[in-house]
Write a structure and sequence with these properties.
The protein has no helices and 3 strands. By secondary structure, it is mainly β. It has a domain at 1-40: Rubrerythrin, domain 2.
Amino acid sequence: MPLFEFVCEDCQSEFELLVGPREKAHCPSCESERLEKLMSSSSGRIASGAALPITNGCPPAEMGPCSPNCCRLP
């Protein structure tokens, strides 16, 4: 199942949901089905195992990894 990001048009809550092909998404805060899908940032690995050059929020390389799951860690 794909993971989508949404914003509720009724209560403005932002959240992520795993949504199956036959499922109707609804807001976990107010149960509304009036949702707008948000554009998610991509992440992944290329065949060589190197991180894709699509990163945001990582500090410069000389400062070390940004977190335990940093895209620059082997």
